Amino acid sequence: MTRRTLLGWVGAAVAASAQTNRRPNVLLILVDDMGQRALSCYGNPYVRTENIDRLAADGMRFTDAYATPQCTPTRATLLTGQYTARNKMWHVIPGYGLPWARMEEPRFAENLERSAFNVAKGMKAAGYRTACIGKWHLTTNADGDYSSLKAAAAGYYGFDFVGEAPPAREQATGDKGVDRLTAEAIRFMRMDTEKPFFCYLAHHTTHGPLTAPRELVEKYKAKGHPEDGENPAVLMACLEHLDRSVGRLMTALDEMKIADRTAVFFIADNGGVWERFRPVLAADGKPSPKNLELMDRTFSSEPLRAGKGVAYEGGIRVPWIVRWPGVVPRGVVNGTPVHVVDLMPTLLEMAGGRAPQGYVMDGVSLMPVLRGRAMAQRALYWYMPFYDLRWPAVPSAVMREGDYKLIESFGDYVDLDRGAEYVIGARVELFDLRKDPGEKKNLAAEMPERALAMQRRLRAWIASCGAVTPGQNAQYDARRALWEQRGR
Length: 488
What we know:
It is built from twelve helices and 19 strands.
């Protein structure tokens, strides 16, 4: 090797190293079943989430941030950068449904394919160390289950590290693994300082069954919160315990002296649990296809309507905070509509990575927004062609365009304004979210031209993704229409 060649190689290596050092570490914290109002920086009057609030004070807090209304679809959207109409993972797995319902549910994917491109693969190709810690819920095979991705399969999905196998039923006992998963994330971040890292930390909390350290539960019981029911002590304890874990993560970044070059994202996978329903039983003990009965209430997402599982804002609007020192301006509250589908293009741009040629990403990079600039308006979409009456959800699709939001229920719906009455027939709802964030006034009859135009664009988008608009079920049986069956 000549001196000139050697100097050129050294110069290139130094330049590459400098570029690596300019790229941020990424810590993505995904929490389960958390509506915006659960955090004090979004208005929780019962719990002070001081560490998460500090993230917001040091960065950007989004008011109009969206996920899908349930677990698996959001996780698939996050990793693939594609809407559920395209990635086919629009349903919670393993499968269940209503085989005799009025509308036919299209077939959905029950496993994220090993061969599919995802954000972890893109980050790894860009030179990042990658970790998947906590809840997986994207396969029903030997690669992983609800609680975790298996270490032996991690490489197939672009991950270098998954941590130790979780204890049995961790997601339903003790502190739901918050302390252990936080420690695993810190262990991973400390492993190697030569490469930047992408750490995907997916907590089980605050998904049911709610469980938290007993001393925190007692603290909130002493403040007057009930053991169960609305605004329960255990939920408040879960939120404080999660907030403490975020504090531990931020302290670790400070101790490692990498806080100034680490981008932290805090996001939820769907809105919080508010009301749960079940079919009313008729005299013969079979579900009556007339009404659903309210089982319980947990925590209101007011002023947003409803909660987890439904197409209303309480089901899909989530907390979303980004702290990235030196890039994201401090203390900004941003009203730009953003969607979890935007995470892949955003993270790849941050990392200097790219998707394979021809790969379709449905989202856009949020880098202009994160730098404090405006972004061109675009429509956001949701494809939810399934039944899940516990929330209650029916086959539907959603489009947000500017301040207007359209919900199309394809063949039946549950009218929450009429005591959760189950109604046969299609319905279109149109809301002006700027004037009516609680979705109290359906404008479809007053603005028929806008409603029809948005409906046509929504259906054209569904078709462009290779998905179908649900049609009437050939096996429809009115007496068994609300019977839920496990499996396909």
